[in-house]
Amino acid sequence: MIVFDRKLDAQSVKSHIIHLHQLAKIDDFFVKEEKRFLYELGRKNGIDEATVDIYLKDVEDHPFILPKSKKDRIVLLYEYIRMMLVDNKLDEREAKMCMIIAQKMGFDKGLVNGITKAIVTAEADNATPSLTKDQLEKYIDNPEML
User: InterPro entries from the xrefs (predicted)?
Assistant: First the structure.
């Protein structure tokens, strides 16, 4: 589910969880699949479910922490797109937000479309969507080919 075994610092994890939660709520629903996704992200980064629940209550004006490396920005963008699709519904408001996030991260909207297509295709093939190192390199080196 989460694409790499990278560890984020505590403030970056909190920021990422809070903003993923905000994305999930754009469609006015926060479903169990979305909550599970946040719990898994927390566990991957050493944060228990109770702490994730605290983060979800502490959402007022929390800063968006932009990762420094292009690789980390793509990985986080991938997680935003996974959150958008985790409930098996493509909501236009969530898609627009992912486009805005991509632009804030310095990426073209085409990257969102390419990653979204890859995730949907994997799910249609009954595979668990994941971002391989080869795909990541393609997104970093050749985003115009998406």
Answer: TerB-like (IPR029024)
For residue range 108-137, what is the model confidence (pLDDT) as tens digits? Answer: 888 888 888 878 777 777 777 777 777 777
pLDDT in tens, 23-81: 999 988 899 999 999 999 999 888 999 999 999 987 777 888 888 888 888 888 989 99
> pTM for the whole thing?
0.83
CA end-to-end span of the chain:
22
Q: What is the DSSP string of 88-119?
A: S---HHHHHHHHHHHHHTT--HHHHHHHHHHH
- Taking a C-beta distance cutoff of 8 angstroms, is the pair 77, 105 a contact? yes
